Every structure is written in structure tokens, then in C-alpha cells.
TrEMBL record:
Cofactor note: Binds 4 Cu cations per monomer.
GO cellular component, one term: apoplast
Protein name per the record: Laccase
EC number: 1.10.3.2
Leader sequence segment: none
Annotated Plastocyanin-like domain residues: 10-124, 136-286, 395-528
CDD domains for this protein: CuRO_1_LCC_plant (cd13849), CuRO_2_LCC_plant (cd13875), CuRO_3_LCC_plant (cd13897)
Pfam families named among the record's database cross-references: Cu-oxidase, Cu-oxidase_2, Cu-oxidase_3
Known catalytic reactions: 4 hydroquinone + O2 = 4 benzosemiquinone + 2 H2O
Keyword Secreted set for record: yes
UniProt-listed Gene3D superfamilies: Cupredoxins - blue copper proteins (2.60.40.420)
Family: Belongs to the multicopper oxidase family.
Length: 546
């Protein structure tokens, strides 16, 4: 196994999109940032230097970080932020994961432009569980604001209203042909007739679930979230922010140019969304030269309707683990968390300018009625490891405080979230089952729920309220998919299982950043086991303090 050394300099860089130039926070002046390529078993040592005017951290999304929780990255959870002018070296080893992951800033809304791909190939001497593709292309789907994303979220936090939606979707940082001023920079993906390409697709967007397709081509899904799946063929993918999907595409169509395209899956009723489409071009090498034939438009794909939940759900139910699934059959912790949005009454004494949500409210979000608040004086992990009192409490509830018809037509009075920094404590090795139950207070929505430090099996999902008597029969304990981000169906539930074998403090949150901003998060505190191999390592000497 190799060790890879990298320098990441977080800095402001002028970036021009949609005819306008913005001072944009990037890594090494690149947007998207550098692609990391490693083999399973390799170690990464990344020295992050912060030359921007904002606090920053980097999270290695999906990396298990076994015993190396100090390198996970979410600010105030596993470290204090790297201050402007500061630096921190992240050091971790890839253990047993293969496929596509990614990295992104985990501080305010910096990740809008601070992100990149992490490609993990099989161990030296091992091979893919599918024929080796001729080429591999990472495709990072993103969102671009014609504004500073940090200003967008600050304004929303101040007013209590929903933040502005993005102005373009992007593929590898480019909006593509269908947007103003973007045509000449459209991303081209070359392919030869008959050749197979492995597309490594990441939804690195901030707030939008996306459908993805390639005109006239079949996509064979072979992996997701750096775990292999039993191959299945589709024409449309749906990815929530945080999720990755690896697909094989074969050039079996007449030589031409075909659009690769993504646009919104807008699951929430009535919520504003951007109905534009981002494109790249799959370009057959023997196709008429694009420079001389600009009149020949690429083949346009068919994308599902914006609210096509049936397609989104059918896609997410097609995943089966390729490797032997090690699902715990017995459980020690049976948890039930509600997941959803809400509206808080305007706090007494506050000005109407700060309560610009619907009917003079402020938007909020919660799990089990707790709206998560990050600490500010110590990170949760530091407070846990050094027994610093007063930073968090361990009373995060295992079940909702009141039972109600979660997905029915319910009054918001049933859930007025209480702000808190509460964690749920797990014994080392505990076998956990967690029911994630969406709620329809304010509006129901598909939530991409991400767990740090773990992969988990998604053993069932469905619509409406989870009913143990009816739904336990649907559990797949044989070959459920292993993921780090679950797409919780709109107005529905998912059941996940994992073994708490990685000590540390691990965030569980909705990967729509606007929802984290509103508090849709909690953290698990996993205690050390016995012996060194079951114990969190000591913090690195350069760990940023608050
Ligand atoms: Cu990809 Cu907590 O994040």
C-alpha cells in the first residue's frame, strides 16, 4: 500500500460562470477541486492550508475513518475549524472501500465550491468485479450561485426565510450548453465506438436531488458510495446530495454527440426549485467534428418529470449488495428518529425582519424534535475524549417524544423543535437498527441522510408511517445495499442497520445543506471498546483548537 501526500490550499480565486466573475473559494485555485486517486489500503496525508477569509475544514465523505475520527472533518464535531491563516494535516487510511467517494468543505456553505472526487481502485493485484473499462470519468454534479454562497446562507439565517435557490446546476463545475454564456466550456467526455467507460457520478450539489441520464444509452450500475452492487441496467439515476453511483456505459450507438444531463428531482410540494438542465457531451471520436458542425446539436435525452417519485423510488430500490452482506440479524439498539422540517413561531421580542418564513415564522428542522446546535468552544470529539463538561448532553431521545401521524395532515403545533446539542451514546460493538421516519410538518420531502464514520445497510424503505407489525416482513437481511447516504423516500421511511465498531463522535444529518442549517442533524457518541484496536487514536498535535 502507498501513502499519498497532497497540499490543499483553500483560497479565493476568480471564477466566471453565467457571464459573471465571482471571488470564489477553491482548493489550489481549482473549481471543482483536485481529484484524489488511490487504491484500497492506501494512506492519505493531506496538509490543508487555509488562506481564505472564512473558517474551513475538509470532510472525506464516506471514508470510514476507523479509529481516526480526528481526521473526519465536520467543524465543531471532530475538530474546531481551521482559522484563516491556519493549517491542519488530515491523515487516514482507506480500509476495505472501493469505488467513488468525494471530499468537501464541512463549514457553513463553503462546500458549494470546495469539493472534489476521491477515486478508490482495488488493491494492487485485485480487480474490479466487472470487466475493466477502457476509461474512467468522474462526473461531479453541482450547483452554482450567481452570488457568494456564504452570503446566501447568512441572509437566510438572519431572516428565517428559505435561502435563494442556485442559479445553475453543473457537471464538473460547468453549467453546459443550455445556459447563457456556457456553451464553449461545456464538458466533453470522449468515447470510441464499442468502448466502455466507467462514469463515477457524485451529487456534490448543496440542496438539490438530481436525476441523471445520457441520451440513447443504457447505464449499468455497478457501485454506489464505494461499495459494489449487483449490476443492474437503467436509463435514469437519481442521486441525493452526498450519494455517488458508478455506472458502465458502452458506446453502442451511431457515432454522434449525446447529451449527458442532470436536472432536479423536486420531491417537496410547493417548494421553489430551479427547472434548468445541466449538460455535458458524450462525444464519439468518429462523430462529425464539433468545431465544424456547431449546427449539429447533440442528441437530447429524456428526463423524468420533476416530481417523478415513482422513478426515484424504483431506482433506489434496485440496489443489492454485491459482496456478502454482514447485516446484524440481532439488534441491541432499536432506534426511531423522525426527520423533517418545521416552522418555529417568531421568538417574542424579535423583529418581523427576522421572521420572514411563512406567516411570520422561522424555518426549522429536527430529528426527534431536537434541532441540532453545534458547540463553539470545543469540538464534540474533544469534549468527549477529554471529559470536558457542558459541551453536549447525552439525552438525545431514542424515540420521538410524542407519537402522531407523521406523514398525515398534521398540525405543526405537534412539533415545535427544541434547540440542543444532544448526542446518543452507543456501546462499542452495539448492533443498531435505526428507523428514519420522514414527517410532513410544513412539507414532506425526500431527505438524503448521511452517517459519518460508518457504512450502513438499508434493509427496507416505504411510504407513509413505519409499522413494525407490517413492515418487518419486508426486511432484506440477505443482500441489502451498503451505503453512507440513504435516500429517505418523500413522506416515508427507511430502516438502516450497522454495528457501532468505530469509536468516536459521528454526525448523522440530512445532506441538503439548507436542512443542516435549520438543525436536521444529531451525533452518535460511540464509546471505546477494549484494547488498542478498539480505541480512538490520540489527537494529532496540530489539531485546531477553538
Ligand atoms: Cu458529505 Cu457531513 O457530509
Amino acid at each position: 500500500a502507498e501513502t499519498h501526500y497532497h497540499d490543499f490550499v483553500i483560497q479565493a480565486t476568480p471564477v466566471t460562470r453565467l457571464c459573471k466573475t465571482h471571488s470564489t473559494i477553491t482548493v489550489n485555485g481549482m473549481y471543482p477541486g483536485p481529484t484524489l486517486e488511490v487504491n484500497n489500503g492506501d494512506t492519505l496525508v493531506i496538509n490543508v492550508v487555509n488562506r481564505a477569509q472564512y473558517n474551513a475544514t475538509i470532510h472525506w465523505h464516506g471514508v470510514r475513518q476507523i479509529r481516526t475520527g480526528w481526521a473526519d472533518g465536520p467543524e465543531f464535531v471532530t475538530q474546531c475549524p481551521i482559522r484563516p491563516g491556519g493549517s491542519y494535516t488530515y491523515r487516514f487510511t482507506i480500509q476495505g472501500q472501493e469505488g467513488t467517494l468525494w471530499w468537501h468543505a464541512h463549514s457553513s456553505w463553503l462546500r458549494a465550491t470546495v469539493y472534489g472526487a476521491l477515486i478508490i481502485r482495488p488493491k494492487e493485484g485485485d480487480s474490479y468485479p466487472f470487466p475493466k473499462p477502457k476509461r474512467e470519468t468522474p462526473l461531479l454534479l453541482g450547483e452554482w450561485w450567481d452570488a457568494n454562497p456564504i452570503d446566501v446562507v447568512r441572509q437566510a439565517t438572519r431572516t428565517g426565510a428559505a435561502p435563494n435557490i442556485s442559479d445553475a446546476y453543473t457537471i464538473n463545475g460547468q453549467p453546459g450548453d443550455l445556459y447563457n454564456c456556457s456553451s464553449k466550456d461545456t464538458i466533453i467526455v470522449p468515447i470510441d465506438s464499442g468502448e466502455t467507460n466507467l462514469l463515477r457520478i457524485v451529487n456534490s450539489g448543496l440542496n438539490q436531488q438530481l436525476f441523471f441520464t445520457v441520451a440513447n444509452h443504457k447505464l449499468t450500475v455497478v457501485g454506489a458510495d464505494a461499495s459494489y452492487v449487483k449490476p443492474f441496467t437503467t436509463t435514469v439515476l437519481m442521486l441525493g446530495p452526498g450519494q455517488t453511483t458508478d455506472v458502465l456505459i458502452t458506446a453502442d450507438q451511431p457515432p454522434a454527440r449525446y447529451y449527458i444531463a442532470a436536472r432536479a428531482y423536486a420531491s417537496a410540494q410547493g417548494a421553489p426549485f430551479d427547472n434548468t438542465t445541466t449538460t455535458a457531451i458524450l462525444n464519439y471520436k468518429s462523430a462529425p467534428c464539433p468545431a465544424k458542425s456547431t449546427s449539429v446539436k447533440p442528441v437530447i435525452p429524456i428526463l423524468p418529470a420533476f416530481n417523478d417519485t415513482a422513478t426515484a423510488t424504483a431506482f433506489s430500490k434496485s440496489f443489492r449488495s454485491q459482496r456478502k452482506a454482514l447485516v446484524p440479524t440481532e439488534i441491541d439498539e432499536n432506534l426511531f428518529f423522525t426527520v423533517g422540517l418545521g416552522l418555529n413561531n417568531c421568538p417574542s421580542g424579535s423583529s418581523p425582519a427576522n421572521c420572514q418564513g411563512p406567516n411570520g415564522t422561522r424555518f426549522t428542522a429536527s430529528m426527534n424534535n431536537v434541532s441540532f446546535v453545534l458547540p463553539s468552544s470545543f469540538s464534540l470529539l474533544e469534549a468527549h475524549q477529554q471529559l470536558i463538561p457542558g459541551v453536549f448532553t447525552t439525552d438525545f431521545p431514542a424515540a420521538p417524544p410524542v407519537k402522531f401521524d407523521y406523514t398525515g395532515n398534521v398540525s405543526r403545533a405537534l412539533q415545535q423543535p427544541v434547540p440542543g446539542t444532544k448526542v446518543y451514546k452507543l456501546k462499542f460493538g452495539a448492533r443498531v437498527q435505526l428507523v428514519l421516519q420522514g414527517t410532513s410538518i410544513f412539507t414532506a420531502e425526500n431527505h438524503p441522510i448521511h452517517l459519518h464514520g460508518y457504512d450502513f445497510y438499508i434493509i427496507a424503505e416505504g411510504f407513509g408511517n413505519f409499522d413494525p407489525n407490517r413492515d418487518t416482513a419486508k426486511f432484506n437481511l440477505v443482500d441489502p445495499p451498503l451505503r453512507n447516504t440513504a435516500s429517505l423516500p418523500v413522506g416515508g421511511w427507511s430502516v438502516i442497520r450497522f454495528v457501532a465498531d468505530n469509536p468516536g463522535v459521528w454526525l448523522l444529518h440530512c445532506h441538503l445543506d439548507v436542512h443542516i442549517t435549520w438543525g436536521l442533524a444529531m451525533a452518535f457518541l460511540v464509546e471505546n471498546g477494549v484494547g488498542e484496536l478498539e480505541t480512538l487514536e490520540s489527537p494529532p498535535a496540530d489539531l485546531p483548537l477553538c
